[in-house]
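HUMAN:
Could you generate one sequence with tokenized structure?
ASSISTANT:
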Amino acid sequence: MYTQREVCNDMSRAPWLLKVRSSQRVILLTICAAAFTDGFMYAIFVPILPVTLQERYGVEEGHVQIWTSALLGIFGAVVLLGSPIVGWISDKEDNRKPAYTFGLICLAGGVGTLAITRHLWMLLVSRILQGISAAVVFTIGLALIADTVHPKEIGYKMGYALSAMTCGVLAGPVIGSLLFEASGYYAVVALMLGVAIVDIFLRLFMIEKRTAEKYLQALPEDSERSRLLQTPPLPTITKPINDSQQQASKFRTFTLLAQPRIATAIYGVFLHIVIITSFDGVLPIFLKSIFEWETTKIGLCFVAIGIPNTLFGPIAGRMADIWGPRWIAFCGCLGTAVPMALLQLVKENDTGQMWLLYVLLAVLGATLSLIISPLAADLFFVVENLEVNGDVAAYAQSYGLFTCAMAAGTLVGPVLAGWLKEQFGWEVMCWVMGAFVASGSVPVWLYTGRSPN
């Protein structure tokens, strides 16, 4: 922890635009942009990966499905392993900015590697670096949102961030396919670089709440501090600043998972991401074989999922804030299972089957949004209760578990769906994935909070 003398020596002058840079809007915008960026970086190669693997990296046609699933899955594996560590370090440190900066370096390295390499092993390195960046963004980003917003709005605000992530995952294939067909591989990489630059600027511009308050405390009474303190107060930080170092240094991941309500939230998030990413692994190849579509038309199918999912995400969060997350997440699990299972009806190349595909994907996108935002809010309420009872080591580590669930879904989704499709066919894959997401309704009904209180 910082002493008052250290704070005064290091923070004698407030940064430029301190109030704006530490405002709730800027912090939320930054986290949403970061979530979108990492989802976008993960997904932009989805529709072009089969072609790129053959033309640029020399992979034989018979191995394309295996490498496609592996490259999508390795991203999730890195996030899965890294998120608990990031959460533990974040709970130990008083400032989250260094970890966030490290995430920036990994993001820049991942994009840069894509621009220069023609070796398959370097493509793997790029996906690993992007996975490290995502582990930092989601773990620390969700904790920053919880630090910043009022508890009564936590589901609504997290709905924005999680919808931004899903929007990135689903917009990436559309934009990537259009750019690839129009201008080729390097146009896609250039777009990734542009998105990364905007993300980096926002992350450097943002000042988190705890840092802003230290600057205010360090300013002399008769200086700029008086002017800043006359403005409306910064939103209250939910997590206590003066945590004991002994408590914060505890590694609590397994203890937290032993709590049924936390485990239920983690499992529900895992199911949500499994369904989203399962399409990344199998949908482009399936549509190319059935409808003989090129990358542009394949990308448009992801729009059918993405638009309703993005629109309904904040709404689902607001509903959870008002009525509690239990019913919303329960309906989301069962509601997603229906269109997922009915996708097995899409078998032939005709107009009716094409429109059936679009409708089912749109319904699935809407119902998926009912799962993740309410469960993210429920996790926040559990963590708040733990902190009230003195367990301050649970904060970022809980959101690290949340990120782990997303990462595990990213790893399992494309690999499981790809294996099911290859071994048993499209119909069996749809039935199994539908039953899988429906399984989440049982623990949600038993353990998820009935009300936001």
About this structure: DSSP finds 20 helices and no strands in the chain. The two ends are 32 Å apart (CA to CA).
